[in-house]
Amino acid sequence: MSTTVTGIISREKGAPVEMTDIVIPDPGPHDVIVTIQACGVCHTDLAYRDGDIADAYPFLLGHEAAGIVETVGDAVTHVEVGDFVVLNWRAVCGECRSCRKGEPKYCFNTHNASRRMTLTDGTELTPALGIGAFAEKTLVHEGQCTKVNPEVDPAAAGLLGCGIMAGLGAAVNTAEITRGESVAVFGLGGVGMAAVAGAKLAGATTIIAVDIDPQKLEWAKEFGATHVIDSSQLSGEGEDAEVVAQIRDITGGVGTDVAIDAVGIMTTWQQAFYSRDHAGRMVMVGVPNLTSHIDVPAIDFYGRGGSLRPAWYGDCLPERDFPLYVDLHLQDRFPLDKFVSERIELGDVEAAFDTMKSGDVLRSVVIL
Asked: Domain check: are 9 and 139 in the same one?
């Protein structure tokens, strides 16, 4: 039999979100119903609300979630009722050309639930990133559930489901930072701050955090930044940007081994590109809008060497990475709990979007 729960939806582009009844069908053979304990408020949810990702309204928002497996389909083998899980949106298929090449992080056919959640009038919902966890319960594919140590705080663990893993993975997996290297991170939202923490975890000895918000620059020091740059009053573009000059001063005139753009606008992209040492690595983990274009002189691209790489979900493998970073957190080696700025109720999601825009939090987390 279907189950009716309370959830948060975006009914139309730009309109405030609504709290309403959600109908969850019985799970298909490989589906599971998860009782949600906590779900972070991510910028991606705001992008869904504002029509910057898709037009398949209404959306059931929320995706940075942790909870308990309540019901399983008759063919489920990956999890059992009662398991504590973090939800992920990259449940790899194991069969596509990317998976067969040994690159499952680029899977082209990731799994989602086989049945659709609906409103009480039968209107089908599009779950954000295939999850839809701003709800008391949600329906996902079994592969979207990653078991982790149940001793962890659900509010902290759920953040691995998207933003924190994106930034952490950009540093550790995509950039492959090693001990003794220098790193610059542009943009200190949750993703950028996770990249700073990831750089420290990987052993970088010079970690330069760049942002326009003095409060976030202070927070960055707590996450491992050795230097901070307030770019709000700095001028110049491209190679002539004052931010680039300051980074070169800090690194003895040569630039960093790694530069991470956690914003996704062309100003920060160019700053990251030009702040690298010769043959340095640049990673873009900030998501650009649909109209942005990369614009650098071809000779600069050619002459600098190195690598330029986007980071999808921090190039993570949830089954490998989520348990690892939960365990490191429980060992006091990765500060997952520091990303939880405030704990809110389900009805506070719209207000949390405003708080996010103001830059006063790293993550608001809905507690259910």
From this structure: yes
Q: Give yes or no for a contact between 173 and 317, defined as CB atoms under 8 angstroms apart.
A: no
Q: Which helix (H) or strand (E) holds 325?
A: helix 318-330
pTM higher than 0.85, yes or no? Answer: yes
Please state, for a pLDDT cut of 90, what percent of the chain lies above it. 90
Q: Which of 347, 337, 338, 342 is nearest to 365 (CA)?
A: 342
Taking 3-state DSSP, the helix, strand and coil percentages for the chain, each rounded to the nearest 5, stand at: 35, 25, 40
34/83 Cα distance (integer angstroms):
9
Per-residue pLDDT, 108: 84
* Distance, CA of 356 to CA of 365 (rounded, Å): 11
Query: Each residue of 199-219: b (16+ CB within 10 Å) or e?
Result: bbbbebebbbbbbebeebbeb
Closest among 295, 264, 258 to 279, alpha carbons compared: 258
What domain range is 34 assigned to? 3-161+335-367
> Is 330 domain-assigned?
no
Q: Does residue 69 form part of some domain?
A: yes
Residue 304 has pLDDT above 90, yes or no: no
What pLDDT, in 10s, does the model give residues 227-279? 999 999 899 888 889 999 999 999 999 999 999 999 999 999 999 999 999 99
